[in-house]
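Render this sequence as a predicted structure.
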Amino acid sequence: MTENKINIMDAEYGLDSRYKSNKDYESEATALMEARLRRMKNLSKDQITKAKLLQLKLKMEEYIKHPVYDNHNYFSDFLKLYIDSIYSKRSTFAEDIDIAPVSLSQVINNHREPKEEFIMKLMIHSEKVYKNVCEFHKKTWYQVYFHEKICDTMSNQDLWRPEIEKHIRISEAI
């Protein structure tokens, strides 16, 4: 341990307090960033693509595990990241899965819901792409899509529930 460093962790706040001053912290942070940048410059395009795909997989799995009740379209965000990690043009991806580029654009931009066939093609494409990256479960795209639908429905109850409740009655007492 150097002279500049003191307690490793401040237990009460969980803060890293090894540095006596901001100058020491900034100096080490700068050195770390420079080392990361040197390492990143030596990565091949293939390594960068694999890293992006692995990061995407982890983001998708995290989204599936933890409900997010908002109106954000995660499926299309994940789809954009997926396509843009692999292809320089989205139209090439559309050709590879045999759909019209316009249809892909409409799904990406939330103007159209993806058809089941689209998700099936995406599932197969992902299996083939991830084969050399890491394990990617076939049902991930379906899980993301339906998880989003559930979260969207639950977050918008104040919009749809009053009208639907008007049509609900209970004839038999429980």
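Summary. The chain is about 65% helix and 0% strand. The longest strand covers residues 9-10.
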